[in-house]
Design a protein that fits this description.
Blueprint (H helix, E strand, L loop, with lengths): L5 H20 L10 E8 L5 E8 L3 H13 L1 H11 L7 E6 L2 H28 L10
Helix pairs in contact: 1-3
């Protein structure tokens, strides 16, 4: 993967900030979930295209509705982006659902479950008499 230049990193950050601001405060579509965040943005070096990775707190239906709402408001979002970020070309935006946060939460729950099972097993051994006699030296 090609390393981004400092200029491209700065543009990515500005576009991410502006997209988050537009999605959070200016779109009135009821399909868009209130807990929608822009996780990262990748603007192509030629500024023609942009991949916006979004995360939605909610079930699969809320994620699908949010994606449909964002795609339907694409023209408005792009016009707002053009006003907020001074770029030579306003990129075409493609929204991509980022499931890394949900994946991380799911893995955390699985780890917690395994740890709870381990605690149960170890406490079960202690109760069955496998514990050493505390009176012996």
């Amino acid at each position: 993967m090609k390393k981004n230049s400092v200029k491209n990193n700065r543009i990515n950050g500005e576009v991410q900030r502006a997209l988050a601001e537009v999605i959070r405060g200016e779109i009135k579509d009821p399909r868009i979930a209130p807990m929608t965040s822009v996780v990262s943005v990748e603007v192509a070096p030629d500024l023609k295209t942009c991949k916006a990775y979004i995360s939605v707190f909610g079930d699969e239906k809320a994620q699908q509705n949010t994606l449909e709402g964002l795609n339907s408001a694409l023209g408005f979002i792009r016009s707002q982006l053009a006003q907020k970020v001074n770029l030579r070309i306003t990129p075409q935006i493609r929204f991509i659902m980022d499931r890394s946060i949900a994946y991380g939460v799911d893995m955390s729950h699985k780890i917690d479950q395994v740890m709870a099972d381990q605690r149960e097993k170890s406490s079960g051994r202690e109760e069955s008499g496998h514990e050493e006699d505390p009176g012996r030296d």
